[in-house]
Design a protein that fits this description.
Blueprint lengths: L5 E7 L6 H9 L6 E8 L5 H8 L6 E6 L4 H11 L4 E4 L5 E2 L3 H11 L3 E10 L5 E2 L6 E3 L2 H7 L9 E3 H6 L12 H10 L3 E12 L9 H15 L8 H18 L5 H14 L4 H10 L2
Parallel strand pairs: 1-2, 1-4, 2-3, 6-10
Antiparallel strand pairs: 4-9, 5-10, 6-7, 6-9, 8-10
């Protein structure tokens, strides 16, 4: 079997209600030179059996069932199995527009300096469109990701596999939150990113999850230790803005448990970085 141009990675855990939808949106892509890699992270429903059934007409596929270890381990396992020139991620409850892969692959072919292409998104079951920029933008995203937070939707990403192999970049399995944000930051040290302002992903937002303080602390320490390696990022302003982003996110997460503490954290984040008020307005609008 010929080496595919794209390896499509789907990590899944108890996703039986979404698997048919995810497989169908892949089959409907205008680009067909791909391999499909599904990693079942120890599902206890019939996800694995449904994945086998709905992919029976896809010849180039790998479906792995393993013990439950988390989404980062699943993605890393799939990366090791991948053989394509490019890797595209799809979370099982999200949907791709039919032309997504074709348009992103063209960008990667046109821009040798770009190692990752991401897109804007539309929120599922509503008409809300979310994009970091109103026009396409291509540049180094390192400082943007530190200063502005994580605006890259995992299901919108396609990247060059040789880069993450060469620099051994993987999702941190020890993190329960922000593992994708850290991954983008690490990769951004070695390549430019391209943000495609056209929304090519229909995003299914997960409910805000609650994590203990130790998880936020581990996340912050992991990010801080990584950016300290790179002189361009190891600046006091970047460290303050990083702390602002994490504080802001934590304030939004705990709001239902302790509204006073939530309010205090959000205010602290805004004091450090007043520009976060724009994102706060987006959150308020989305939750209406």
């Amino acid at each position: 079997m010929n080496t595919p141009l794209v390896s499509i990675i789907i990590p899944i855990y108890n996703g039986s209600q979404f698997i048919e939808q995810a497989i169908n949106c892949i089959k409907q892509q205008s680009f067909s030179d791909y391999e499909l890699i599904i990693v079942d992270d120890g599902s206890i429903d019939n996800t694995y059996e449904l994945a086998l059934y709905h992919t029976k007409d896809i010849l180039n596929k790998t479906i792995v069932k393993k013990s439950n270890e988390g989404v980062s381990v699943s993605r890393n396992k799939a990366i090791e199995l991948a053989s394509g020139k490019y890797i595209a991620f799809l979370d099982v409850d999200d949907i791709w527009e039919n032309s997504k892969l074709e348009k992103q692959i063209k960008i990667l072919g046109d821009y040798d300096n770009v190692g990752l292409v991401c897109t804007a998104k539309t929120i599922i079951n509503c008409e809300k469109y979310i994009g970091k920029y109103t026009k396409d933008i291509s540049q180094n995203f390192s400082s943007i990701l530190i200063n502005k937070g994580n605006f890259i939707t995992t299901s919108s990403v396609i990247l060059r596999r040789n880069l993450i192999q060469q620099f051994n970049i993987r999702f941190n399995p020890n993190l329960k939150l922000g593992e994708d944000w850290l991954f983008w930051i690490l990769l951004s040290q070695y390549t430019d990113f391209y943000f495609l302002s056209e929304p090519l992903v229909i995003y299914n937002p997960s409910p805000f999850k609650k994590y203990p303080t130790k998880d936020y602390l581990l996340f912050y320490k992991s990010l801080k230790s990584q950016i300290s390696i790179y002189p361009v990022l190891n600046k006091n302003t970047n460290k303050f803005l990083l702390f602002s982003n994490i504080t802001f996110y934590k304030g939004l997460i705990i709001e239902k448990d302790n509204i006073i503490k939530s309010f205090a954290l959000v205010i602290l984040a805004l004091i450090i970085n007043p520009l976060k008020i724009k994102y706060l307005w987006n959150v308020i609008q989305f939750r209406k």
